[in-house]
Amino acid sequence: MDMMLILTPEPVLSILRDNLHILLALVAVLPTLVLVRTWFKAISLAVELFGRPRSPFPYH
Fold first, then answer.
1. pTM
2. CA-based diameter of the chain, in Å?
3. How far apart (Å, rounded) are the C-alpha atoms in residues 52 and 46?
4. DSSP assignment of the chain, as one string?
């Protein structure tokens, strides 16, 4: 009987509603992380292919 109370949609919906900002933050952060990872891969590949870019300040 207790299990039926836990599995009813009302508590689940309230938990989702309470944690909606966390879910939205995750949804917003994940594509950003994927984008950053892609940029880092692209930059490291470019450095591998073309060598490091020369610094505009050679004596630093």
1. 0.45
2. 76
3. 9
4. -HHHHHHSHHHHHHHHHHTHHHHHHHHHHHHHHHHHHHHHHHHHHHHHHH-PPPPSSTT-
Task: Determine the Cα–Cα distance for residues 58 and 4; give it in Å rounded to an integer.
Answer: 71
Give the Cα separation of 38 and 19 in Å (integer): 29
pLDDT in tens, the chain (60 residues): 455 555 566 777 787 788 888 888 888 899 999 999 999 999 999 888 887 777 777 665
Residue with tokens 């299990």: 3
